[in-house]
Amino acid sequence: SNTIGKQYTTDISMAEDAEFKAGLEGVVVSQTKLSSVRGDVGQLVYSGYDINELAGKATFEEVVYLLYHQRLPNQAELDELKAKLASYRELPALVVDFIKGLPKDARPMHAIRSAVSALGCSDPTADDNDLDSAREKALSLIAKIPVITAYFHRARQGKELLASDPTLSEAENFLYLVDGEKPSKDKADTIDMCYVLHADHGFNASTFSSRVTIATLSDMYSAITSAIGTLKGPLHGGANEGVIKMLTEIGSLDKVDAYVEDALANKRKIMGIGHRVYKVLDPRAPHLKRMAKKLTAELGETKWIDMSERIAELMLERKNLNANVDFYSATVYYSLGIPTDLFTPLFAIARTAGWTAQVLEQLAENRLIRPRAKYIGEEGKTYTPIGER
Ligand code: COA
To answer: Ligand 1 in contact with 326 (CB < 6 A)?
Structure first.
């Protein structure tokens, strides 16, 4: 008991000496070769490439290769990766039945998270964390999560579930499975670029939770299930759905100012604005804004983008806060006719590239992630028998 007492004293003093950062703000918890988020200058780097160098040039599949290998593929390597992803798209019957059995009014992020978890049940090698085996599971998840999303969306409408088309890219195949027809080149290219912009983003909350899960040597499916559950929240990936909800609520450009003033006065957050790391403009936002402007102009309906621009202008003026990735992606997806509750799933589909690459990086040099909390509770209480309380 002497030793236990000593241990206890040491732990308390260590915890009290350590500096506490609410929300782990600014705390560096790992090293990574995958991506760097430079909040002071508004720069995002994927394995050596500034995002502006990749956006509109590299395809999502090239970025997957980049995140897995820290270099861009040559044509043969890219073809091989694409063929592999296509070969992994088919879902096990157990998972298809699981998706069909879900309530039609389940929220898609709940459905996708649960179906990924079900994938783990149908893979007898799920717990094999050998790097080669984990890499195959990772690629299989990149290929399967879009199919899960599309199948749930079709199943809830009572529509037929289509077989994937191996000749289509990831973006094309997803849109094909959702809409039941092959997408236009413009639509597929826009979604592909959105995938590129969302593929990885340093130690964001969902990536961190995937790393925490795999660091216990759990398994790839559990890590990605954790990540999806974390992305879902309105302070993270859920914000893009929140933006459309907000725009619908406001209704028209002339009501924007009053809405924002009211939100600020009542300390309500404006969705799609602000960022933990970026203190200047999120470098992904201008790309999405450009796409949103083009798409809304083509549709002849600029209301959403006009409202968005006014909100962004006011938030910069009033709070010195900038638009983040979710702000304009909402209008992009809306203009493409994507159902609102598939906005966050689209983020999940793209970020699976980053999550899985980061999980593999964690596995390659693993150490259990186990931080500390500063105890601020009471001390020295004695036990009162229940009858005397
Ligand atoms: N609307 C209104 N005010 C905001 C705001 C927003 N979207 N984001 C931050 N603020 C204000 C806070 O009220 C706070 O102001 P105060 O100092 O006057 O109290 C200050 O800015 C700091 O905000 P805080 O929530 O502590 O920052 P954070 O680093 O913990 O949060 C986010 C970062 C992203 C969670 C936060 O900006 C947010 O909730 N944004 C909306 C949700 C969103 O778009 N998420 C997607 C992120 S990619």
So the answer is: yes
